Structures are given as structure tokens and as C-alpha cells.
Amino acid sequence: MQEFDLIVIGGGSAGMKAARTAARMGKQVALAEERELGGECFWAGCVPTKAMVRAAEVWYLVQNSGKFGIHAPVQRACFAEAMAYKDRAVREVGGAATESDEARLRKIGVKYFHSRATFCDPNVLQIGRNVVRGTKIIIATGTIPHVPYVDGLEEAGYITNREAVSLTELPERLIVLGGGPIGLEFAQVFRRFGSEVTVVEVGSQILPKEDGQVAELVTGYLRDEGIRVLTNAEALLAAANGGVKSLHVRVGEMEETLEADEILVATGRAAAVGDLDLESAGVQYTQKAIEVDEFLRTSQPHVLVAGDASGGYLFTHVASYEGRLAAENAFADDPTSYNPRVVPRATFVDPEVASIGYTPTAAIEAGIEIAVQTFSFSDMDRAILHGDARGIVKLVLDATTKEVIGGHIVGPQASSLIAEVAIAMKHHMNVSAIADTMHAYPSFPEAIEAAALSTPSYVGRVEE
Q1: How big is the CA angle at 316 (ends 311 and 318), to the nearest 5 degrees?
Q2: Considering the domain boundaries, does residue 98 fall inside one?
Q3: Which of 162, 243, 262, 294 is most enclosed, with most CB atoms within 10 A?
Q4: Range of the domain at 408
């Protein structure tokens, strides 16, 4: 039986970071991954979808270039060619990722098993034909799409993000079940290429974790592009007849039947633990996540979890952070607790959405007295010159200390702008640290400065 100081299960962002961290600590490390190295983000999530978002954005700009005085003789968009661009972009980002990642693992002494791992007992794993023992084990298996029960859905057929990133034919009509980031990104991409799209969201707003005003603005922007957005909508029954799929929904007190060529399910994620046999390991878990403490340790302290499988923030940057932290904590006499206070998140619809920290509602519910400072991109020179002045910046402050405790942006380059708010929060800065910093003119970061300079009596304006 081969023995290792650490066995990492999963070769995505969390698992790769954990393996590299432990190897650099001088530990004997093994990593098991039954699919491709790189994880869900690289193959079916963040990376391919952002290439699709960009392709759809370019086509949208071409169609609307007349307002800039540009009348290009572009006749059509070829969805299959756009998806071929996506494939090329993914390969370029990865740089033949599977081979290079394997080579990097070998270079630092990590033993790589391209096989499924299953627990035999709390320390022993069956990995393919190999039986191995780990003093410490990190589970980094990520998540799989969570498909809610809807009568008839299995029989009617559906796709998830995994199939959606591989389509080569554009569905003429698409139902998106779920109004979170994944569902909305796909909804806008397919709409811009010509699909009729309906989003069905069970909650009272799309982007349920975002500030209500931000979600309301995004709803309006999507509807402006012809996307039908249904909230407080419950899917009751699905069916298929002659290639046409239908979904019967209840929206408030009304019921209706939607028809489409495809149903895309984007209703959340669940931990990918089905093949691990966690019962043999004595590790406690729920339907959606493995239970961990503040140090990322499971009910078996020598078994830790990094990344999406723990049910926390489902972001690649968080997974990478947790991979390093789990590896360090696995061998630490004094482990470091996971701190989720400063976690930026972004949704790549157009205009983008980005946020961090408390929403005003969450802060009030936590008993924090707050001040909210807001600025509108419609009052911003660079946004006007850019030709897209939609959106707002909203800063949430501790009313007493004026420390920045949250930031919410919908607007151009929001995913980049949120970094300034993250730095302020990381270092517990007063809002004046942003307001007193010179920002280049004309630039989008001025929107953060303008929000910092605003006061409740001058919402959306720079205080003179």
C-alpha cells in the first residue's frame, strides 16, 4: 500500500492549489482526478462561458453600432462559429492545460492518479486499481448541477451548464430554470444570438443574493433586450411532444404553459460526493454540501474540504484560497480560520454586476447602523462617452466609523471596479481613503470615487 502525507481528491482550482501548497511544504502528496485537470470552472463554467459572453457582446455591439455612426455590412451571426471561437479561447487560456498541469504536478513531486477515488476507511482510499493511505486528506471534488424535482422533467429532457457550453446549434426558444448568475449569463448570450428566452425564477427577484435595487435594474436591462423574466414562478410540470418541450408554471396566482426547444436548468449546485462513500470515512454531509468547521475540517479532523464541496461561496478565487488554507491547516499546530468577510463576486451579464460584503438589508438585519452612498453611471463622463451609462455604484458604510462594509455595482467593468472596494474592506478603511485618492479622468473607477464623495442628501452626485 502506498502511503502519503496528504491525498487530495479533485483536480480543480482548490485541489491543484492544495496539492501545490503541501508539496512546497515538503510533504509527500498524491492527487486523484477522474476527469480532466482544471475542474468545472475551466471546462464547463467560468472560462467557456466568458468566451461565449464576449462573442455575444461583440454581436450585440455590431447590431447597435449605428449610434456610433458605424454601419457595418455584417449580415448574420453564426452560432456554431462563435462556439468554435469559445473552444479556441479555452485552449489558449489553458495552454494545453491538462498536459501542463500534469507536468507541473510531476515537477514538484506530486503523484497524480487519473482515476476515481473512494474511501475504504477514514484514511484509506481506493483510487482506480490502487489502494493508498493518507495521513491527511483534502476533498476538493467541487459540485454538480442541482436539479430540482419537477414532475416530468427527467422524461422531457433538459440541459445544464455542461451541455450548454457545448451546443453548436442555437435553440430557437429556450427556457432557463433559475435566475442566478449562471442562468442569467446563458439567458443573455442565447438571446443575443437570436433565441427567444424566458427565465423562470422561484424567488421574488433574480440574483437572489444581490442588493434588491441592483437586481431590479438588471431585470429591466434584460427585459429591454427581449428576455422574459418571471419571478415568484414555480415550475409544476414538464413534458415533451414531437421535439417541443413544455413547462407548466405558476406565477403568483396565474398559471401558464411555456414552450421551448430546450430547457436549461440552472437552479444551483450540490457537492459532488456521490462516488466518495463518505459513510466509510465517517464524514458528515448533507444533500448539498460536506459539513466543515471554521478551519475547513470535517467531522473527521484529518479530512478537510476545499472549494465548492463545502457549500460556501462557489467561486474559483475562493476555491483557490481555500485550497491553500486547507493544505496549511492540515499540518498546522495552530490552524487559521477561514474568513469570508472580503469575497468579491461578479456576474457577467451586460452591464456587469459585482458585489462584496453587506447589502443594506443584510447589514440592518445584523444590527449595524449604516449609511449608503450611491452614484449613477448616467452622471459619469466616461460612461457617457463609452456609450453605455447604465447602472449604479452603491457603497455600504458603518454609520459611526464610516468604514466600508459593502459595495454593489451594476455597470460597465463592474467586475474590475469591485477590486477597489475589496481593498478598502480588506484593510478596514474609512470611505475617505477612496474619496481622498486621485482617480484618472475620464475613467470608470471615478464612479467609486464619486460614490465615496457623495452624501445621503446628494445621492448620485459628487459633493462639491
Answers
A1: 60
A2: yes
A3: 262
A4: 345-454
